[in-house]
Structures are given as C-alpha cells and as structure tokens.
Amino acid sequence: MAWFLLFVAGLFEVGWAVGLKFTEGFSKPMPTVLTVISMVISVVLLGLAVKTLPMGTAYAVWTGIGTVGTVLVGIWLLGDPATAVRLTCIGLIVLGIAGLKLTA
C-alpha cells in the first residue's frame, strides 16, 4: 500500500509542477488553488508512505516520479524539446527509481 501511496503522491507532484506553469506567478486564482491542492495532497501522501518505507528511498522515488512525469508532460503537452539526450537522462532516472524500489 505504501508504494501505491508513493506513486499517487508522485502523480500529484507532476500535477503541481505543471500547474505552476498555469498560475502565471500565482496571479490566476483557479490554477493557483488547484496547484496548492495538488501540493498538499502530494506531501500528505508522501508522509503516509514514509511511515513504512525508508525516507531516502521514498523521497528519491517521489521526486523521480515527479521529474519524469513533469518532463514527459512538458514534451507531450507544452512543446518542450524531446532530444535524445533528454530522453536518455529520463531513462536513467527511471532506472534509478526501479533500482531503489528493488532494494527497499
């Protein structure tokens, strides 16, 4: 269950990271509210996950999911570049996340 909570927390991290783009410096009320809600949910779920998972592993996996997800959303929806180097680096992050999960 803790791994599932951690995964969902990572997805909400993607939500708030992408949401920051749409808040326009927190000047737009609805995107700001949704971004802050995503932040709170993400951190609460992370907090629940670390009750049973090692803190360092959980935090690294949480930020890894957020990083990979945010980059992929940026590529797919926001027109960020999808260069071979960027995609290779994302692949390395995914390998690191998998390695941490396998050793936890």
TrEMBL record:
Give GO BP annotations, semicolon-separated: xenobiotic detoxification by transmembrane export across the plasma membrane
Could you tell me the keywords of this UniProt record?
A: Cell membrane, Membrane, Transmembrane, Transmembrane helix, Transport
Q: Name one GO cellular component term.
A: plasma membrane
Q: Which Gene3D superfamilies match?
A: 1.10.3730.20
**Domain of life per record:** Bacteria
Q: What family is reported? A: Belongs to the drug/metabolite transporter (DMT) superfamily. Small multidrug resistance (SMR) (TC 2.A.7.1) family. Gdx/SugE subfamily.
This chain belongs to the protein called: Guanidinium exporter
Q: From what organism does this protein derive?
A: Rhizobium tubonense
